[in-house]
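From the pipeline queue, job 12 of 40. The input is one protein chain; the requested action is below.

Action: predict structure.
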Amino acid sequence: MKKLFLLVFLCSAFLLIGTTASADTFNLIYEFDGVLPPLVYGTVDVTEDGGGDLDFAISYNTSTSPLGPTADIHEYYFNLTNSFTGLSIYDTNHPYTLSDPASVAGGGGGAFDYEVNFGNGAGPSGNGMLQNATFTLSADQPLLVDNLLEYSYPNKTPPVNMAVHFQGTGPDGEGSETVGGNPVPEPTTLLLLGAGLVGLAGFGRKKFKK
């Protein structure tokens, strides 16, 4: 029994260590209407800059996404695990805005703590057709990538940590979609989990034979 407890403890510890990172990639794979299939519509790369801020890079997957070639990054939604004061964003090239609380466009029942608005796409007051966007998030306290690992619960998808609303979707470029997702599992974390499960299974078989 003590050996079994030790194996479970070690697996849990390794998984916790594996989820703590100074940078992470979030795959946007769930379309909130539940109509389009799960696939990588885009990615959000988040990096701790060493000074307590988070650098974000949002990319639209133009090669395989069914949202169409004119899909435009409109709004980004995210949660934070703690209450932070003095939250602000900045980008040297664009006047992006941060709002709280967020009103999720096409959210399918999903609610998030914050929203970053990138302008009206190629329309008035817009920034052109935006398929890659970068900005930095800062606060009065240091921010970590792990602070983004708070779930939202849309009606027709699994729980997600963040989402992006796209304008200009579809063949005619007049639609819009919201897609959400979670961190990409690190290979080392998956290997540790697999090794732990194999160890537990082997221990169980050994005990059963006795």
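Job complete. DSSP finds two helices and ten strands in the chain.
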